């Protein structure tokens, strides 16, 4: 250190505390994962006071482990504690976030994803040293289950109720029996949601990930629409030549190996009077515009998943911060003549881009 450098000892101490907080938050993520996977938040969703023994009897889990887990939840302010009666309670306001899978605020998916993503850190270290990245098949299979649950609130609460009606003429086409392509469909929840809302529509879901397509087909059967939704294992080049009235991608483009070619293929699959809805993350290419909660969340996630998956295939590695400016430029190169960011604050994280040929 230079002799002229001065150091504020108070700031050093404050930063040391910050590191301890971040370390605790990282480990608390594992506690949230455990609580979600074991159904402990749902067990506490009645918002009534319970003792440790009562919760142990209710759940059938080991009381000693529950006591330590509850300690983590209380000190993390997820659960309240009455020291006089030694009872615990989860506030009613936390239930929609932690326990209600039909809620637009449900966060079970991100709690489930935290452990698979963090587990990839050693593999990502090798990519820092040698280039390349971590391909999708290197991730634990529950990664895709977590993604399904992470985006599920969008489809349950916004896709049909708000997003599709905000697009010019799309709802009317689907009601009349129009065709739909959901590319990068994952486990099929968006396609299934549209099939249930628009029984006359013809819907196809495509994804290059075979386990996701298997899950999508099972989900469609369970939802009673297995005869009205088709799921295929394919990449974007396989759909060229087929035309659809409505094409969708939900946070797919920024992960792609060749996002520009993918957009060209999607343009070729959009009918001349059709609409392509590109749902992406409401983030910017510019670092200074991401100095917020979403930036703090998504830079780590992009490093551990979005960017590294693309780079593992020698791809563009756009990462989560593709941004509206780049999306607009890529759409123009792909041959779309109209690009509109659809006003939406439901919810604030995704950005809706309406593209027309």
Overview of the molecule:
The chain is an alpha/beta fold. Helices cover 48% and strands 15% of the residues. The chain has 14 helices and ten strands. The chain has helices at 9-37, 40-43, 52-59, 63-75, 95-98, 108-119, 121-130, 142-163, 170-175, 189-197, 210-222, 259-268, 293-312, 323-334; strands spanning 50-51, 80-82, 87-89, 179-183, 202-207, 229-233, 244-250, 270-281, 338-342, 350-356. Strands 6-5-4-7-8-10-9 form a seven-stranded mixed sheet, sandwiched between helices. A three-stranded antiparallel sheet has the order 1-3-2. Helix 1 packs across helix 6. The longest helix is centred in the N-terminal third of the chain and has 29 residues, at 9-37. The protein is globular. The mean pLDDT is 95.
Give the helices and strands, then pairings:
Elements: H1 9-37, H2 40-43, E1 50-51, H3 52-59, H4 63-75, E2 80-82, E3 87-89, H5 95-98, H6 108-119, H7 121-130, H8 142-163, H9 170-175, E4 179-183, H10 189-197, E5 202-207, H11 210-222, E6 229-233, E7 244-250, H12 259-268, E8 270-281, H13 293-312, H14 323-334, E9 338-342, E10 350-356
Parallel strand pairs: 4-5, 4-7, 5-6, 7-8
Antiparallel strand pairs: 1-3, 2-3, 8-10, 9-10
